Known about the structure:
Layout: H1 2-26, H2 40-150
Helix pairs in contact: 1-2
Amino acid sequence: xxxxxxxxxxxxxxxxxxxxxxxxxxxxxVKPEIITINxxxxxxxYKLDNLNLQQQLEELNNQLILALDELQSTSQKLNLSASKIxxxxxxxxxxxNAFNLSDSSLKKSNAKLLENEKTxxxxxxxxxxxxxxxxxxxxxxxxxxxNLRAN
Length: 151
């Protein structure tokens, strides 16, 4: 979207400058003319030509004004889009920072969990060994009781 706006903006600027330069090169200084008045038809024709040229000039002037308005509007839209992009980039950066913090916290939690699981396994093994020792002691006790009763 930004590329379209930039393209339109640059196109309008280029058209404006090409038209301006073209008009500057094609403007021929006005040479004084001596008009011989032979009849009223030539005067009317000259006035009509002059009026037509003035109308064309006014029409071109209006087109130039419209093009400048469009250029200004496009420029404002481009500035607005650029500021929105900056805001979105800041938001994205803060989200990325929050993600990095969460990821770091998750890695620490996983390391702690693995450590706790290892401790739990060690405790389970110690409990199993203790149970086995208790069973052996019970067995020895039963043998000792049996020997006592037999004596």
